[in-house]
Design a protein that fits this description.
Elements lengths: L2 E5 L6 E2 L1 H14 L7 H6 L5 H9 L3 H15 L8 E2 L3 H10 L3 E5 L4 H10 L8 E3 L9 H8 L10 E6 L2 H10 L2 E5 L6 H7 L3 E3 L2 H8 L9 E7 L5 H14 L4 E5 L5 H11 L8 H25 L3 E5 L2 H11 L4 H12 L6 E6 L2 H9 L12 H17 L4 E5 L4 H19 L1
Parallel strand pairs: 1-4, 1-6, 4-5, 6-7, 7-8, 9-11, 9-12, 10-11, 12-13
Antiparallel strand pairs: 2-3
Helix pairs in contact: 1-4, 3-4, 5-10, 7-8, 8-9, 11-18, 12-13, 13-15, 14-15, 14-17
The structure holds thymidine-5'-diphosphate (TYD).
The site of thymidine-5'-diphosphate has 13 residues, from α14.
Length: 427
Amino acid sequence: MRKCVIFDLDGTLTRSEEGIWNSVKYAAEKLGFPEPDAQTLRRFIGPPLGYSFREYMGMDDAMAEKAVETYRERYNVVGLFENRVFPGIRRLLRTLKQEGWYIAVATGKPQRTSERVIAHFGLDRFFEKICGPEFGHHADKTELIRRALPDDWDAQADEVWMVGDRKFDVEGAIGVGVKSIGVGYGYGSEEELREAGCTAYCAAVQDVIDLLCPGAQPPQGAFLSIEGLDGSGKGTQLRLLTDVIDRFGFELQLSREPGGCAISEKLREIILDKNNAEMDDVTEALLYAASRAQHVRQVIRPAVAAGRVLLCDRFVDSSVAYQGGGRQLGVQRVLEINAPAVDGTMPMATIYLDVDHETSMARRAAATELDRLELAGDSFHARTEAGYRELIRQDPERFIVVDATRAPEEIGGEIAEKVIRRLMEAE
Ligand code: TYD
């Protein structure tokens, strides 16, 4: 028995409302229609466009056709990338692939546009076929699902599911004679899907995984870290990167060191407390390592095992640079202290925000309150920078070094591109 699953695209794999709504508004404005309200806009997701312009905006056939054309002027250039992959979808597709399913797409969105969206998000490798109508042609869901199935599919022998968020998907599945899952996280309501006669209703992506692949091991996630001298702009870049990782449908979990879980946060307070001026350098290094040992076991490993992308604000490289370089304990000694803490768990990629220690110092001087470590002298930061440079020299493959003296958006763009590429390669 072959197991086949066909997915709808909009509202099932991706959330495309941003691009769709902006393009509907664009068409309405250009053709002299009033701007559609939020409720009207919501209804545009799923059904064929011409149908929506007729039904929801009261256009006649000729006007609706013109509206579709106008919509596409904007949508095909920018709208199609104003899009997000639902969280969990990558994990669902990876799990299905792992379990040997035949996976395809049957969408009401034109074929070429669908292919571009799917390739943009690096999801194309999951699908045997992507079936949408050719430009300017209408195709109903039944026909699209039939096309998306393996050429030699067998209604008796194969297990076949259609997964979609609107009644059109369920009706299409019924038309072909296959089972359907109505998903509740998209644009249709549970009522709509049940009324249409879906075989199963799944409120969340996880429920689809549990239904189609019960007991399957989640695919491995990834561990990323971000490093830089104090004042390198890490906070801003973390925010920008969070949005991009999320947009691509990777399930992101943020954490930080020192800290990241209750015990490690308590250690953080001790380490960074300005009143602990008498703290010995070895004590400090051991406390960082202790906090890391707990964090690795309680947070990092479980997150990666659950298929999430764990992005950590600093990791062991900070100890090597700050305690090994800055505090002059030596790179080797700090690595040894950290060996049992890290115990082989290293980031798949580490973003290094490259600013020299003079720039970092100047930026920090503008900050209001400096903590105990930040109050250390300038030669400390010069040695810390040297520590980082040594690490990068030793492990150039792992580090993504970006010039962090540029405008934040420019830096963010470079990081996004490189990080997403690495995450996709690791999938
Ligand atoms: P934090 O307030 O998180 O500052 P930042 O925004 O610069 O990351 O403080 C972390 C400080 O701890 C930072 O100065 C670097 C230092 N540090 C070490 O010295 N060793 C380590 O292993 C880690 C994780 C951080």
